[in-house]
Amino acid sequence: MPEPHQPSPRSPTPGTPPAEVPRGAAWIPHGYHLDAHSHPHGQLVYAAAGAFATTTERGTWIAPANRVTWTPPGFDHSHRFYGRTDVRLLDIPVDLCGELPAYPGVFEVSPLLREVLLALTDRPEFRPGADRRLLTVVVDELAAAPEPSLHLPEPRDDRLRAVTALLHADPGRTATLAALGRTVGASERTLSRLFRTDLGMSFHRWRTVLRIHHALVHLTNGRSVTDTAMECGWSNPSSFIEAFTNIVGQTPGRYQADLRGEVP
């Protein structure tokens, strides 16, 4: 993974929250939150270093340095940044948005897509029409990219909301679905059905994705793999590494090495 860029003249002083995240490139400090807003155009957000979460009415997507989030025109969304983040924002004209999904999502970033995103956000247009041509490459790469399993949907049912609120507050909580049901006054059978009908996944899968979201934040902030596994609810590092690799597509150690710009 290439070394992250040095702050450009457009970037804020490291550690200083900007009044508004600009288009293009900026270093964003850890913990910065951009409130809910929408755009008349589509928007891609990419972290060349660090990580961030995008939240919409459809749930939350987390994007480490090998993912890019997509928000179509008109969708309210907010962002929260984890670690010192080299964030790149790219507007997608409405006439190109039809080539991409009509709902928010997160996509894997191929080596070609990464370089095009960096080029479009690092430098001014050097030749008339060049940016438009590069944008069509971005759209082509996204159209061919798989959507990774980093989407955490949020429930509409009040009983399910009560259960997921408990897990959001303590992702490492090891309580069974039956025990959580007793806490919120719902049966295990009812909650299991709601997870599948309301969220489209099992209780175990939803809690695993939630834990991976928190694990990515811990790893981005420099926590060890072992400490992260324990804090996020895994009984041993091996089971954490297996789950992380299955969802993120690389081991926790490789993810941290990529953040440091280490070459395998």
From TrEMBL:
Keywords: Transcription, Transcription regulation
PROSITE patterns named among the record's database cross-references: HTH_ARAC_FAMILY_2
Stretches assigned to the HTH araC/xylS-type domain: 161-258
Pfam families recorded: HTH_18
Membrane spanning residue stretches: none
Bias (Pro residues) ranges: 1-20
Record bears the keyword Transcription: yes
Superkingdom classification of source: Bacteria
SUPFAM superfamilies xref list: Homeodomain-like, RmlC-like cupins
Disordered: region residues: 1-23
Protein name: Helix-turn-helix domain-containing protein
Gene3D superfamilies: Homeodomain-like, Jelly Rolls
SMART domains on file: HTH_ARAC (SM00342)
